[in-house]
Design goal:
- This protein has 276 residues and is of the alpha+beta class.
- The chain folds into two domains: 25-118, Macroglobulin (MG2) domain (Immunoglobulin-like), CATH 2.60.40; 128-248.
- Helices cover 16% and strands 48% of the residues.
- It is built from two helices and 18 strands.
- The chain has helices spanning 2-15, 247-275; strands at residues 29-33, 37-39, 43-50, 59-65, 68-75, 82-88, 98-106, 109-118, 128-133, 139-157, 162-180, 184-185, 197-202, 209-210, 214-218, 222-229, 233-239, 242-243.
- The strands form four sheets. Strands 9, 10, 11, 13, 14, 15, 16 and 17 form an eight-stranded antiparallel sheet that branches. A five-stranded mixed sheet has the order 2-8-7-4-5, with no helix packed on it.
- The radius of gyration is 32 Å and the shape is elongated.
Length: 276
């Protein structure tokens, strides 16, 4: 009899227990970032949507590099199921290049997306050196660092007073170039620096679009610039006011002068020998 009474009391207690949390499983959650790659210090804009709203339940945002959590935050869901927040890609744990995973948790359901992260570039060192061909006159080196793809070819463009850079992008990123003034430069009539014009071609649009860039170093010997890249970019045109003189023409002139000198000397020598 006591066992029956205890069982009935337990059922009654459970029946009138308040509900503190509601969990919906299997609902659709979407999350996106405004870019596919970020550099140290960039602001990441995160937006998304949940299918069903859980009153009083925040979204838990986490960012991981492999198994290391580098950021965590809570986001409030609006009445229409949408959410958004921003995150600065910086901190002690953002210590190396790599792919980050952004995870959204809400009421037991999880959604993920990923993006590439690159440490802040400096001009202290470059990852690669590309050997640029000077028609009929050898080559020169162009130090560079590229994140989000690879450099395929660099060629001088005498018509644009600059050079063209063919690239293959796999994500958003950037390219940093050290441009030696002896080969390509952009200067005013008074000798001060003029800004380069940078055009970028992308598979998503027909014509090249002028791109912003930042100059991170300038000396009497070179200028170092950094150009942001989008996935799908395949060509960069850098236009200045000066390109290395037409080495082919100069080489030909030197060769012609040398030949004329030889002919002159030979003629004089013949004249001397004949007279002798």
């Amino acid at each position: 009899m006591k066992k029956i009474f205890f069982l009935l009391a337990l059922i009654a207690t459970l029946s009138f227990s308040p509900v503190f949390a509601q969990e919906v499983t299997g609902q659709q959650i979407t999350v996106t970032t405004d870019n596919t790659a970020y550099q140290q210090g960039d602001i990441i804009t995160i937006t998304g949507n949940v299918e069903k709203i859980l009153p009083g339940t925040p979204i838990v945002l986490q960012v991981f590099f492999e198994r290391t959590q580098v950021a965590v935050d809570q986001i409030t869901v609006s009445n229409n199921g949408k959410f958004s927040t921003t995150l600065v890609a910086d901190g002690k744990l953002w210590s190396s290049d790599g792919q980050a995973t952004l995870r959204i948790g809400y009421g037991g359901d999880v959604a993920e997306t990923s993006f590439d992260f690159f440490k802040q570039a400096t001009s202290e060192g470059f990852d690669f050196i590309f050997e640029v061909d000077i028609p009929d006159s050898g080559t020169f080196d162009m130090p560079y660092t590229m994140k989000g793809g690879t450099m395929e070819l660099v060629s001088l463009n005498k018509n644009n007073l600059g050079f063209d850079v063919e690239i293959n992008t796999t994500s958003d990123g950037y390219i940093q170039l050290q441009i030696f003034r002896d080969y390509v430069d952009s200067i005013r009539n008074d000798g001060t620096d003029e800004s380069y014009i940078v055009l970028v071609s992308n598979t998503a649009y027909e014509n090249p679009i002028q791109s912003e860039f930042r100059q991170i170093e300038s000396t009497s010997e070179f200028r170092t610039i950094e150009i942001p890249l989008k996935d799908g970019d395949y060509m960069i045109q850098i236009i200045g006011t000066f390109v290395i003189p037409e080495f082919g023409t100069i080489a030909q002139l030197v060769l012609i002068i040398a030949i004329i000198s030889i002919i002159t000397i030979t003629a004089k020598t013949r004249y001397r020998f004949n007279n002798f």
